[in-house]
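Entry — protein

Goal — fold tokens:
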Amino acid sequence: MTHNDALAVTLNPSDPVEAIVRAAESALNVRRRYQFFVWTQSYLGRLIPHQLAVCGSYDRASRELLFDVFNSFGLEPVLMDALGDARSLLMRHLQGCWLEARCRPTIVATAELSFASLGTVRDALLAAQFEKILVHGMSRPQRPQEIESFFAFAAQDGAALAAHAARLELLLPHVHGAWQRVQAVERDVGTGGAAVPPSIKVGGVTQREREILTWLREGKSNQQIAEQLGISALTVKNHVQKILRKLGAANRAQAVAQAMSLQLLESMPGAQAAARRRDVPLT
């Protein structure tokens, strides 16, 4: 058991002060993208329950925020595109709401996204049962318009998200620090965050493995996945082991994070969708 696992076991979820301390301590160990994903799903998720986290960091080369999306279940492509694009009307609107709130944690009601051009994105958010979005960020001192990092969280339980919004004020330095560290480390190791490590061959991941990865993202056990797919739990276990080898992952969480980076969990268009259950490599 690792140090982080031990902390998770001893964490008392009924004590928010202790939970905040543990989240801050564990954030110091976050250096890779998959570690950030695991941290948001565990320590941060206990304090700010969410199924969607959008994380942006200012990139000095492109002179704009670059966003990464972490979601625990599948979302419509139109929504994923909007969330990952700093220039999309949705992300610009969320930043505007935050600036209007004087850079404090802000809840944005999805139903109030009334712009005509946001209709499709708003509908996709509502279809995912994301009725509220919690946003917060960090700007340069005395220059609120110069945003260094920006985060958006959404949960199917919008009331719980809103109730815990104030916690983001305390946690923001740790979220910001961990995400900035991830960006720096990923650049240093040459993966560039969402870029594909040269050792991973996307074409080696089969349609069946991609489908299993989608269930893994939702936290399903081997037995639960087997029941969904009509195969044995042992077959699922064998598929998971192959997935870990192909993606160079040490565990399921790392495999899911890597698959998200490779966009293996996106909806399959056209002929690929028709071959959804065929165990053939992606091309």
Q: What stands out?
A: The longest helix spans residues 167-188.
